[in-house]
């Protein structure tokens, strides 16, 4: 099969860019319609999950539901072969004949060419050009030459959609856990980051995107420390990761590691990866949630949250202004209400409860 000619090669550009358009492949269909002199160009495809059939058209307007007219034709069409519209209609079906004569013909869709494309992962697609004039061999040949390119475009579209879906799930999980990452170049400029980082900036005020996309901690001391770490990673990528505490209430920590992987999609080379983890709620909020979750008294909840941070009962008592005896009495009630056998079990129960994703 001969390659696409110079006059229609721009179809390939529109085809491969179409996966990023909304509506999908609108420019490609418009160019195909113009090249063939059709009144409309239609791309129909069925997603891998066999969900609702997608019908994309070059001309906006009332849908003609062309896919519903070809139930037999879709099953019998040989992949890659170009068919005339009349070959695919079931002329023994009165409803199809009536629709063709009373809707398609008056709507300037009585003539057409169609081809079926099968993508290896399971997507089936049908490309059609329709109009009120006869389509010749050149139009059919054009559709035939497009088949392998549409197949490749569909494969890329499937991969892109899967990555979008996985990314959305990952971002949602990161957001619920209040965890995210960003990459920085040697000047501490943000190269890339997870979607939940920007809301985290706005919610906490501990970090922000500064001029020229530079990561700006609110603390001048943290800013100087981070800049020095990133510069050190730029000079020596084998240095050990460094941890920085940004806030105690609500708790927020940062781990800065050398970048071990690069991406050709990045505008500049990252030298550091910053992992952010913490809590979206204050200590008082968490104590209120422990009251709701385990039926603790407010005084017990405050001690339970302190113990869940891993400090000793003596340290927790001192921080809350309690005597050791009072703290021990509270702890017995806390263990009974939460079902914990001791402090280690309490840490596990609290940090793996629904509070972790609240």
TrEMBL record:
<dbReference type="GO" id="GO:0006355">
    <property type="term" value="P:regulation of DNA-templated transcription"/>
</dbReference>
<dbReference type="InterPro" id="IPR036388">
    <property type="entry name" value="WH-like_DNA-bd_sf"/>
</dbReference>
<dbReference type="InterPro" id="IPR016032">
    <property type="entry name" value="Sig_transdc_resp-reg_C-effctor"/>
</dbReference>
<feature type="domain" description="HTH luxR-type">
    <location>
        <begin position="293"/>
        <end position="350"/>
    </location>
</feature>
<protein>
    <recommendedName>
        <fullName>HTH luxR-type domain-containing protein</fullName>
    </recommendedName>
</protein>
<dbReference type="GO" id="GO:0003677">
    <property type="term" value="F:DNA binding"/>
</dbReference>
<dbReference type="InterPro" id="IPR000792">
    <property type="entry name" value="Tscrpt_reg_LuxR_C"/>
</dbReference>
């Amino acid at each position: 099969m001969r390659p696409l000619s110079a006059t229609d090669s721009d179809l390939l550009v529109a085809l491969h860019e179409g996966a990023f358009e909304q509506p999908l492949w609108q420019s490609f269909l418009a160019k195909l319609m113009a090249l063939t002199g059709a009144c409309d160009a239609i791309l129909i495809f069925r997603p891998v999950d066999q969900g609702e059939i997608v019908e994309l058209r070059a001309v906006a307007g009332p849908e003609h539901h062309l896919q519903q007219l070809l139930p037999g034709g879709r099953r019998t069409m040989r992949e890659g072969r170009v068919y005339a519209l009349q070959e695919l209609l079931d002329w023994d079906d009165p409803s199809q004949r009536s629709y063709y004569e009373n809707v398609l013909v008056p709507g300037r869709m009585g003539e057409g060419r169609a081809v079926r494309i099968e993508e290896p992962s399971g997507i089936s697609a049908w490309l059609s050009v329709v109009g009120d004039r006869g389509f010749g061999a050149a139009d059919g040949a054009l559709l035939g030459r497009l088949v392998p390119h549409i197949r490749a475009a569909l494969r890329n579209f499937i991969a892109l959609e899967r990555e979008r879906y996985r990314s959305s799930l990952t971002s949602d999980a990161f957001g619920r856990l209040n965890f995210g990452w960003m990459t920085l170049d040697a000047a501490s400029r943000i190269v890339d980051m997870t979607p939940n980082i920007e809301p985290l900036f706005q919610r906490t005020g501990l970090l922000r995107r500064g001029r020229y996309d530079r990561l700006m901690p609110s603390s001048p001391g943290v800013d100087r420390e981070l800049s020095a770490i990133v510069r050190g990673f730029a000079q020596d990528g084998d240095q050990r990761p460094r941890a920085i505490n940004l806030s105690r209430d609500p708790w927020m920590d940062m781990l800065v590691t050398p970048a071990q992987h690069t991406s050709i999609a990045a505008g500049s080379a990252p030298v550091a990866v910053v992992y952010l983890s913490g809590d979206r709620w204050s200590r008082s909020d968490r104590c209120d949630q422990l009251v709701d979750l385990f039926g603790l008294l407010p005084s017990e909840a405050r001690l339970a949250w302190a113990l869940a941070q891993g400090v000793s009962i003596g340290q927790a008592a001192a921080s809350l202004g309690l005597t050791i005896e009072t703290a021990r009495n509270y702890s017995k009630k806390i263990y009974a209400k939460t079902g914990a056998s001791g402090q280690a079990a309490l840490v596990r129960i609290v940090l793996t409860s629904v509070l972790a994703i609240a």
